[in-house]
């Protein structure tokens, strides 16, 4: 009987912590902070480090093949990247992109990425039974997807969980004349 009570109390406390974390805790405004390190294997097996892209802007997009808003937005992300990847910028050498698929199982992400037009090699897949508990999602404070970040040439977070339109405006304002 005593064990049941302890277990019940533990479950209630755990549920409270999870509800607080996902529902009530405000997102940290990360703008201006240094981007957390990313070191992971890409889908092609190559090692990737966010620090390799210092000097350029980097769009980081957390998404999932199971997420209708992500799938709807992915072709627009592809268009934005195509439009701005070869531009000359005032304070950056270029524009790179890193997509991080948060998945529960299998290779569903692969079909989705192909269908949505992803053509870049810098794709990471993080599998986890509870997708928002992936290491990279937790490092970046991602609680729902899609979640996009714009990292500056010095490795700082310029835009935190913003729309594609916000990114487009920022990039447009930083193109060299």
Strand line-up in the sheet with most strands: 5-4-3-6-7
The main β sheet shows up as: 5 strands, mixed
SS field, number of helical segments: 5
- Spatial separation of the terminal alpha carbons: 74 Å
Report the radius of gyration as a whole number of Å.
18 Å
Mean pLDDT, all residues = 88
Name the poorly predicted regions: 23-28
Shape: globular
Q: Note the run of SSEs as H and E.
A: HEEEHEHEHEEH
β-sheet strand percentage? 15-25%
What would you call the structural class? alpha/beta
Q: Would you count the extended β strands for me?
A: 7
Q: What share of the residues lie within helices?
A: 25-40%
Please name the defining characteristics of this protein.
two-stranded antiparallel ribbon, five-stranded mixed β-sheet, 5 helices, 177 residues, alpha/beta
Task: Give an overview in words.
The relative contact order is 0.20. The chain is an alpha/beta fold and 177 residues long. It has a five-stranded mixed beta sheet with strand order 5-4-3-6-7. A two-stranded antiparallel sheet has the order 1-2. The protein starts with a helix and ends with a helix. It has five helices and seven strands. α2 packs parallel to α5. About 3% of the residues have low confidence.
